[in-house]
Amino acid sequence: xxxxxxxxxxxxxxxxxxxxxxxxxxxxxxxxxxxxxxxxxxxxxxxxxxxxxxxxxxxxxxxxxxxxxxxxxxxxxxxxxxxxxxxxxxxxxxxxxxxxxxxxxxxxxxxxxxxxxxxxxxxxxxxxxxxxxxxxxxxxxxxxxxxxxxxxxxxxxxxxxxxxxxxxxxxxxxxxxxxxxxxxxxxxxxxxxxxxxxxxxxxxxxxxxxxxxxxxxxxxxxxxxxxxxxxxxxxxxxxxxxxxxxxxxxxxxxxxxxxxxxxxxxxxxxxxxxxxxxxxxxxxx
Amino acid sequence: xxxxxxxxxxxxxxxxxxxxxxxxxxxxxxxxxxxxxxxxxxxxxxxxxxxxxxxxxxxxxxxxxxxxxxxxxxxxxxxxxxxxxxxxxxxxxxxxxxxxxxxxxxxxxxxxxxxxxxxxxxxxxxxxxxxxxxxxxxxxxxxxxxxxxxxxxxxxxxxxxxxxxxxxxxxxxxxxxxxxxxxxxxxxxxxxxxxxxxxxxxxxxxxxxxxxxxxxxxxxxxxxxxxxxxxxxxxxxxxxxxxxxxxxxxxxxxxxxxxxxxxxxxxxxxxxxxxxxxxxxxxxxxxxxxxxxxxxxxxxxxxxxxxxxxxx
Lengths: 285, 312
Description:
Radius of gyration of chain B: 19 Å
Distance between the termini of chain B: 30 Å
CATH class of chain A: Alpha Beta
CATH architecture of chain A: Alpha-Beta Barrel
Distance between the termini of chain A: 34 Å
CATH class of chain B: Alpha Beta
CATH superfamily of chain B: Dihydropteroate synthase-like
CATH architecture of chain B: Alpha-Beta Barrel
Number of strands of chain A: 8
Helix content of chain B: 25-40%
Oligomer: heterodimer
Strand content of chain B: 15-25%
């Protein structure tokens, strides 16, 4: 399982300020911590970065790789910024990952970059027409992305398909559809297609104290479905791995010793599987 | 082989709610989807309450305003008219004059109106605030006390004011409407929060927020349908209170119930249009799971009662 450290995102205030001021300190500190916690790659999310995106991505890639011997996941919709990042990327630490192409024609050129720079690339299974309705629609879009990748000369082994995790608080039925999509994606090629998710979106909009709970148990369910990579908090995922046996036991219908833990896990699994309706206080019911 | 009609049965059941003390009204109690009496038990008809206000309804369209022209100057006379002449099974008194942007009447004034209306009628009373989050939290507390032990419905408690309103409804033995804004997860959350205060879930009524045909009805329909399915298929107790559709106030403010025939001749007769619009919105929401309706026009109510007759 590849954990792509998620913490370097322009959405976080501290990171945004450091990016704007070109202050290496916080960026390198966060990157280093994620590496130590078990990330195998670092996500550098600079947002749409319409102005000065190229320079910013270049700075991010070099700043991170100065202190961390890991490849970078280049996360922006700005084509030129991606290219700038790829040019300075130190491939000694592994091949970079472009985040992302999709079924939207505006994102097709990302495949060109993947081919030109021998980069890996995420294929987000959305089109221009809005969000996919179910696992089947995600698989249909995946097939189109795969066909297009071959046209552009990107090997299928270099693609990570991303079914797009949605918020459980507003789109509960999609949690299980994403798990099904992971299984379907894997069957679309031999060897199986690789898969990735932006994990923590599952708990976006949920109360702070239940976010890690949802993230962890959802991660384990996705892992059981065959997930290869997750853009996630490495520390949280390490915790998840320690609880994996407990979750697997409960999924198999067994009882676990810690009754309180059992309740939390069971209720969370029921919400993920859409067996009970989500509410912010679901753990208290 | 003879054809057997497939039947769907569920583990969950909607709570049965009784309101009023003298003449009572009962709704809910079914363990099947709306009107599916061939699959299980539908013990009660949906209840339609007539909406009245504590001030003259200046902003109601002519079609529905003129019906009450001779009585709407006084909520007591208006209430009696609905009960005695229109045979209302319940009355919903909206305390619109308490809204800060209207007459901003005091909670004490509202309490007096409620007492006067209660003294004049024997059918159950639904007491609604002006839907102003802060003002309702004082008005609805005062009217709950004024109506103590009359087994009314108090409404509406929302995320921003449920604590005081639920406490007052609980202390004075009323039922309570919990309203959230077209979001099933927030609707469940509000019901949880209210019951965590010690309020009995079997005394709740869920209002997922109404909308008129053409103005988002499909959202209300879908949320109601999903709430009902959660109650029946998942046996989710937080989603088992009956549901309210506050139809009249949403229908009688839209263009279709107001635009004149000279302006839009191809839309047909204005009066008929408004009545039909209210009736169609109401019946749609009955089909999606509402057990309690608040309506305005007597002809629309009649049409909906007939619809219920045919489906029961």
